[in-house]
Amino acid sequence: MSKYSDVMEHIAVTPEMRERILDRAVSAGRIKARPSRFRSAGRILALAACLALLVAGAAAVSSRFAENRAEEFTSELTLGPSQYESAEELSGAGGIPIRDLSWLPFEAEETVYQSFGTGFSEIVYTGEDDRVCYRVSTGSGDTSGDLNEYSWVETRVMDGLTVTLRGEEGLVHCAFYEKDGYSFSITSEKGLTPEQIEKMI
Amino acid sequence: MTGAAYRSLSPIYLFGRYALLLLAPLSGAGYETEDDAALVREKAGYFFDAFGDSILRLAYSYLHNMDDSEEVLQDTLIRYLRSAPKFLNDRHAKAWLMRVAANLSKNRIRYNTIRRADELNEELAAEEREDLSFVWEAVKSLTPKYREVIHLYYEEGYSASEIAEILGRNENSVRSDMKRGREKLKEILKGGYDFE
Quick one: A137 and A125 in the same domain? Predict the structure, then answer.
């Protein structure tokens, strides 16, 4: 067992936690009951289904059935943000005005346009050396979601905007500013110079 | 091939699974309102026994806080019970749940709604397990995109393609992040512990 697994062994669901979660979920009425129809019919049909399956045998379960289930599973996996093909589509669908960054310091091999409903929209550019996320949100302040603590924080005026830069050793990992009632942020995994940030906004 | 994999392919196991899949919607439509709590507890019991620890650990790997992780576990359970999805097998079910939990955790990070206390760190310190604290701090220092692939690979044993499916990411990007994550860990741990 790896040491990381040893670390994770310390995280486990306790009986108290289990009861707490169940109590909250049930008492909050967040899980709705289904209609109580077809109770008897359901049992009969269930038994019939079992008998039919016994006769047919599990080995005869068609690959078609399995494929259908697999497709069902795949469709159920589509959770999370809504994705779009372009900044124009994203801007129209999400209701938050957003356009592509005018400049990038690397060639983006993959660009993802996604909306998180009325909260925020973002464009994620991924290249060989870096990943930059450009986000536009309702609200104010730093809505980048970058919770890392950086040793360097500075505010600069860029193109008439007051931009807060957060990073380390002169490289910006998170920049944010406000404009026209929206909050904008640019985050970079690798880090960007303030000059590069200025060219991007 | 593991014993679990052999078991999952056996005709008896498949029969049981498909029979359950057929039965699920019928019996699901039949429960009375007064039985709801009991039924929820029964389904939740299976959820906790089969997947609870894995979901909680995944959430903790993102959020580093027990209260937040517990809420993610709770919200994942609620989605599981509400949507009552049908799966080919437990592995499919787990992948679906892990994806739900990963998305819920990342949304908390995105919305800056996580707490700061790290109970795991405190527990390891109290046990004087400096070696484990060292490993945890190293993994914790990684950015979420490296951390999530490292966790799913080392803790859950998923392949790069499975991780890509769970996280809704490109497989090549997962491989690349795993490589970079390992390199970063190697730099931090300086030979103190090898993640290979």
Answer: yes
Residue A21 backbone zone (phi > 0: left; psi -120 to 50: alpha; other: beta)? alpha
> How do residues B38-77 score in pLDDT, each as one tens digit?
777 788 888 899 999 999 999 999 999 999 999 999 999 8
Cα torsion B6, B11, B16, B19 to 10°: value is: 140
Chain A CB contacts of B135 under 8 Å are 3-4, 6-7
Range of A183's domain? 82-200
List the single best residue of B42, B74, B141 to mutate versus A (max A Cβ within 10 A).
Answer: B74
| Contacts with B57 (C-beta within 8 Å, 6 or more apart), sequence order | A8, A11, B151, B155
ipTM given for this complex: 0.77
Q: For an interface test with B, which of A31, A37, A174 has the most B Cβ atoms less than 10 Å from its Cβ?
A: A31
How many contacts (CB atoms, under 8 Å) link A and B? 179
Spatial separation of the C-alpha atoms in residues A192 and A170, rounded to whole Å: 8
Q: Give the pair of three-digit tokens for residue A39.
A: 């109770």
Return the half-sphere exposure (C-beta side, CA atoms, 13 A cut-off) of residue B88: 20
Q: In chain A, what residues touch B24 (CB-CB under 8 Å)?
A: none
Instruction: Confirm whether A153 is domain-assigned.
Output: yes
Helix axis angle, B36-47 relative to B66-83, nearest 10°? Answer: 120
Which tokens hold the place of B22?
A: 């057929």
Q: Could you give the CA distance from residue B42 to residue A5 in angstroms, rounded to a whole number?
A: 29
* In a shared domain, residues A145 and A195: yes
Give the fold, CATH level 3, of B119-196. Answer: Arc Repressor Mutant, subunit A (1.10.10)
Q: Are residues A57 and A87 in the same domain?
A: no
Name the band, by pLDDT with cuts 50, 70 and 90, for residue A139: confident
Rounded to the nearest angstrom, the gap between the alpha carbon of residue A52 and the centroid of all alpha carbons in its chain is 43
Query: Which regions of chain B carry the CATH code 1.10.10.10?
Result: 119-196
Of A11, A110, A126, the CB nearest to B56: A11
Give yes or no: residues A91 and A73 share one domain. Answer: no
* pLDDT tens profile A46-90: 455 545 555 555 444 444 444 444 434 333 333 446 778 899 999
Query: Which residue type does B20 have?
Result: L
CATH 1.10.1740 spans which residues of chain B? 10-117
CATH 1.10.10 fits B10-117, yes or no: no
